[in-house]
Amino acid sequence: MKKVKMALIALVFATGFVACNKDSDDVAPSPVEGTYVGKYGFGNDTPDLDFIFKVSPNGIFQEISASTGNVKGQGTWTVNGNTLSATYTMLFTPYSKYSVTGTYDPATQKMTGTWGYDNNASDGGKMDMAKQ
Questions:
Q1: Whole-number Cα distances in Å, 30 to 61, 64, 98, 102, 106
Q2: Which CATH architecture does the domain made up of 34-131 adopt?
Q3: Cβ-contact 29, 57 below 8 angstroms
Q4: Strand partners, 114
Q5: What is the SS3 assignment for 32?
Q6: Measured in Å, how far apart are the chain's first and last C-alpha atoms?
Q7: pLDDT at position 28, please?
Q8: Distances from the Cα of 91 to the Cαs of 95, 119, 127, in angstroms?
Q9: Residues in CB range of 105: below 8 A, 6 or more apart
Q10: pLDDT tens figures, 94-113
Q11: What integer pLDDT is reported at residue 15 of this predicted model?
């Protein structure tokens, strides 16, 4: 009888530990995650050149070719409030590095901001994007 009690106590504790186990990998997705389609321009020009990028979980940022749908560049992103910042490198020579920063409006699902060269997200021009 004593062995049965010990087995039941062990079973209750084991069940309690399993039931209380939290999966630390369950992180809510950021509202900025998704694919954006829009335009970019140089300097103060109105954006008029096709631009597609994908903001994926785990900080992965990709520029997507508008003509082929293939990944052209890849890097990382962070978000502070509704402001996205990303830096990425093209996957072909000369392996140019770019940065973008944009403010996401959850009501319209649009992002406006700037892009630039290397780590300067504002020395290239403007961008106007819509989440797909």
A1: 13, 20, 22, 14, 11
A2: Beta Barrel (2.40)
A3: yes
A4: 101, 126
A5: coil
A6: 64
A7: 82
A8: 6, 17, 21
A9: 82, 111
A10: 999 999 999 999 999 999 99
A11: 45
Contact present, 57 and 48 (Cβ < 8 Å): no
The predicted structure's pLDDT at residue 14: 47
Question: Measuring CA to CA, how many Å separate 97 from each of 5, 14, 58?
Answer: 66, 52, 20
Secondary structure of 62-98 in HEC code, one letter for each residue: EEECCCCCCEEEEEEEEEECCEEEEEEEECCCCCCEE
Instruction: Look up residue 63 and give its amino acid.
Output: E
In the chain, where the domains are located? 34-131
Element (DSSP H or E) covering residue 18: helix 2-19
